[in-house]
Write a structure and sequence with these properties.
The protein has helices at residues 24-35, 76-107, 152-155, 158-172, 175-183, 193-199, 203-212, 218-227, 229-252, 255-270, 274-311, 318-344, 348-360, 375-388, 393-399, 403-416, 426-443, and strands spanning 4-9, 14-17, 20-23, 40-46, 51-58, 62-71, 114-122, 130-137, 144-151. It is an alpha+beta fold and 453 residues long. The two termini are 40 Å apart.
């Protein structure tokens, strides 16, 4: 990335860019116009490295940026900070406006036929990189659409972070999106739900596909199929027609089929059977679409019966599925919050602790609600956790309400050697004690066993 050298002169209210003097008011106005425009996709500044960058899409298509190295003197440092603060404020306002508009679009069922996700885009900046909120369509024709780029600093803004979370949550749990995600109507594979519903003639085949493959959010899918049967039929039939036209185009260039087309057209013209040919074609296409519509409708009914049986959905309302989704989302947000803390933490122990807790949340087979009552119970639970995963005592510090209290007793009893009943567990207790001692100097108060802030 090429940077432009810029030297600010706040006394003269000018800036020197590559030897050319320009009005600072004009530059600020130009920068703010770009930051407030729909084409702007990101802003970054770094006081330590003395640079700032404005990313935008030129003509709505080509990516461009305005990248500056700047130099300041004496009191000008305060003024440049004020200037960059104003630019950041304009960028934040633009981001929030874009996200609010995107949220409205998602609530109106836009971008349902694909995934909206926040992914890391590049990491060459000192603040840890940028994240791109983008839409990836299931239809390969439309590919990716980038909404906005966010720095770590942007994501620490509660309003921006909440808007991003809301957009992804609303989108991922919209019934229409769940339909597209499950059916994969743009896929060319034969084992998709779309292909099965459109082509399977026998109930047994339909049943096997439903029972052999996982269905994402089945209750929401069933509810969408019930409420929007005509819309679903229209979407699937439209895709059938699209595929037929595509296949016709591909097959037209097959030498044998080209010969048949030529002979049919030639003899039709020779015998003056144009009208009959057109009518025959219309009857053929009409009967095919009628047959496909009846087949799809029958298979959707079979599918809903299978969903009821497989997932025990009979009598359940969409609200039940919504509660399950909200619970899963809450756990996922908790996990993401913990991972964010691990990234923010400079302390190696805390970083390890938070990362381990995030991994622990993926181990449902361990009963983390257990509260040890004795040293023996604690040791057994510790060994159990060690056997089932790579977890360490760091998680115990966070999850067991009375772990710190018991750990103090462990220290006392090991020192006084008053645990003859637990000789077999002495090694485990020594491990716990040793690990705790190793943590004291980093994050534990020496007198009271508790995590320090």
């Amino acid at each position: 990335m090429a940077y432009t050298n810029i030297r600010f002169d706040f006394n003269d209210n000018t800036a020197l860019i590559n030897g050319e003097k320009m009005s600072l008011d004009y530059l600020i106005k130009q920068w703010k116009e770009i930051l407030n425009s729909p084409e702007c996709i990101g802003f970054y500044c770094n006081d330590r490295e003395m640079k700032f960058i404005i990313d935008y899409h030129y003509s709505g298509k080509y990516r461009n940026n305005m990248s500056y190295w700047y130099t300041v003197q004496g009191k000008d440092k305060t003024k440049i900070k004020e200037l960059l603060s104003k630019l950041e404020e304009a960028n934040t306002k633009n981001i929030i406006g874009k996200l609010e508009n995107l949220k409205k679009d998602v609530l109106n069922n836009c971008y349902m036929d694909g995934e909206i996700e926040l992914s890391k885009s590049y990491t060459n900046y000192a603040n840890g990189g940028f994240y791109t909120l983008s839409f990836n369509s299931y239809n390969a024709k439309y590919c990716e659409k980038k909404f906005v780029e966010l720095s770590n600093k942007d994501l620490k803004n509660p309003k921006i972070k909440n808007l991003v979370n809301d957009i992804i949550y609303i989108h991922d749990n919209a019934e229409e999106h769940i339909f597209y995600k499950n059916f994969k109507i743009y896929s060319s594979f034969d084992d998709t739900l779309y292909s099965t519903v459109v082509n399977n003639l026998f109930k047994a085949d339909m049943t096997k596909v439903i029972f052999d493959n996982p269905i994402d959010k089945p209750l929401s899918l069933k509810n969408y199929l019930n409420k929007h049967r005509f819309t679903v039929l229209k979407k699937l039939i439209t895709q059938v027609i699209h595929n037929d036209i595509s296949n016709l185009g591909y097959n037209f260039f097959d030498p044998f089929l080209m010969l048949l087309w030529f002979l049919g057209i030639f003899f039709g013209a020779l015998l003056n059977f144009w009208v009959l040919e057109i009518e025959a074609l219309m009857i053929l296409l009409g009967s095919r679409l009628t047959f496909k519509t009846l087949l799809i409708n029958k298979n959707i009914k079979t599918m809903m019966e299978c969903l009821d049986e497989k997932y025990n959905l009979e009598g359940k309302s969409p609200e039940d599925d919504k509660k399950i989704i909200e619970n899963k989302d809450t756990k996922e947000r908790e996990k993401n919050n913990v991972l964010e803390k691990s990234k923010e933490s400079v302390d190696p122990f805390l970083r390890n602790l938070f990362t381990s807790i995030a991994k622990m949340k993926e181990c449902p087979e361990i009963d983390w609600t257990y509260e040890a009552e004795t040293i023996s119970d604690l040791a057994k639970k510790y060994v159990e956790a060690k056997q089932k995963s790579n977890l360490t005592c760091y998680e115990l510090l966070n999850k067991y309400p009375n772990f710190l209290e018991i750990s103090n007793k462990i220290d006392e009893q090991i020192k006084e050697k008053t645990i003859p009943k637990y000789t077999n567990e002495l090694k485990t207790l020594n491990i716990i004690s040793t690990e705790l001692d190793g943590l004291k100097s980093v994050t534990l108060d020496n007198n009271v066993r508790k995590l320090t802030k």
